[in-house]
Amino acid sequence: MAAEDTVCRPLLSAHELMEDPYGGFGRVREEAPVVKGLWNGHPTWFITRYDDVTAVLMDRRFATSSTSLPGGTDEYAEVMAQMGIDRDLIPYLAGSLVYTDPPDHTRLRKLVLRAFSARRISALRPRVEALVDELLDALPGHAADGTVDLVEHFASPLPITVICEMVGVPVADREQWRAWSLDYTSMDARRLNTMLSEISAYIRGLVGQRRAAPADDLITGLMLARDEDNDRLTETELVTMVLTLVVAANETTPALIASGIWALLTHPGQLAMVREDPGLLPDAVQELLRWCGPAIVAKLRYATEDVVIGDTLIRQGDHVQVVPGAANHDPRRFPRPDELDITRDPEADRAPHLGYSRGAHYCLGAGLANQETEVAFARLFERFPDLALAVPEDRLKWKPMPATRQLASLPVVLGPAARLRKTSARAGERR
After folding, report:
1. Are 258 and 380 in contact (CB under 8 A)?
2. What is the distance, to the nearest Å, from the Cα of residue 369 to the centroid of all Cα atoms in its chain?
3. Cβ 96 vs Cβ 112: under 8 Å
4. How far apart are CA 122 and CA 113, in angstroms?
5. Which of 109, 191, 298, 327 could bond to 183 as cystine, CB 3.0-4.6 Å?
6. How far apart (Å, rounded) are the C-alpha atoms in residues 125 and 156?
């Protein structure tokens, strides 16, 4: 076993981290798969190979909350306080599922899991199809000089509309929710304080309405959910859960839809196969999650005891970052890893992608994200057969966010719309 590495190495240039994170972290993976660097000013272990990343994600000795460490304090809450977030509002951030560990995480996840059952997601499909068609109908009206931004007018509004309908948010309030979700990701203390105050009051108001008149929505379901010990969500937990779900829907799925459209438009052979056989779409979405999924670096983890990863000793209390973006391109698990191949067989590779994480923190909304993305691709590429990028690929702009890969915009030329016969039977045949 190698001695503990006490040196914090410069891992990536700013260009690699922002402009080519797959390639940059890929170099790290091949040169030093378990290596110590700096992340937000802290010495941190970076884990980049598929098997090692999977081992950390599945190992409960790696916690997502520093309070799980012996005598640990809540580092995330402390950072929020230092940023200027009101202490009364911090629980809505620090209490999120992604920052909790068992047994609290297990309890919270169990209470919300029913809302994302396969049956419920399947029942949503006709509504998702209708929403996609409405957005596609409106696209030509958003064109300026023949160009439309598919991030602003297609990839972003679809998931936020779906999750707002699931929650029970009235139509008139949905633009406000989209604005709140942007405030959430801004990391601007003033915007966050205002947003958290407003959204918590809004959700509490919805809870009060549903107590008086229950409905078939997520708010009512979360209010009524109980576990085997007759436990239920507190009102603060309920607000936090709704906030987490809405923000996640407005970040991950739009990024996947936009990146997937870009990838297919720049790989015409792959796009041709999807158009020829829409039955390939479920596998195509999974390959796109592997090849260009938005999750580059996962949430920070803490070693709750000494653990050996590979041949490196990680000490209790050390910070650990796993890098799914590098693991998903690991040639030890994926033949021709840098090649986009929608016919790739994950069972043959014995390596499902890590775009939705693994283990206790596997994405709750994975099934919904898959469905929304499949429907978005099917309808978009059928409606606009001449769809093309409006700018050269190297002029596309990506958000300057080091842990994720997201297009800031996706300008396209629609071309003439195909005349389609809109029937639910036809949509059913394609599934």
Report:
1. no
2. 9
3. no
4. 15
5. 191
6. 18
Please name the amino acid found at residue 392: P
CB-based contacts of 382: which residues, under 8 Å, 6+ apart? 275, 278, 418, 420
Cα-based angle 129, 342, 154 (whole degrees, multiple of 5): 35
**Residue 325: inside a domain:** no
Residue 10: which pLDDT band, with cuts at 50, 70 and 90? Answer: low
Residue 7: per-residue pLDDT: 61
Question: Is the separation of the CB atoms in 246 and 167 below 8 Å?
Answer: yes
User: Domain range spanning residue 376?
Assistant: 83-294+350-430
pTM: 0.91
Compute CA 419 distance to the chain's CA centroid, rounded to the nearest angstrom: 34
Query: Contact, 353 vs 256, CB < 8 A?
Result: no
What is the average per-residue pLDDT within 191-216?
Answer: 92
Two tokens at 361?
A: 């923190």
Residue 264 falls within a domain, yes or no?
A: yes
Is residue 268 situated within a structural domain? yes
CATH number (domain holding residue 186): 1.10.630.10
Q: Which residues contact 103 (CB under 8 A, 6 or more apart)?
A: none
The count of domains in the chain is 1
Residue 223: burial class (beta carbons within 10 Å; 0-12, 13-18, 19+): middle
Peptide bond into 103 cis (omega under 30): yes
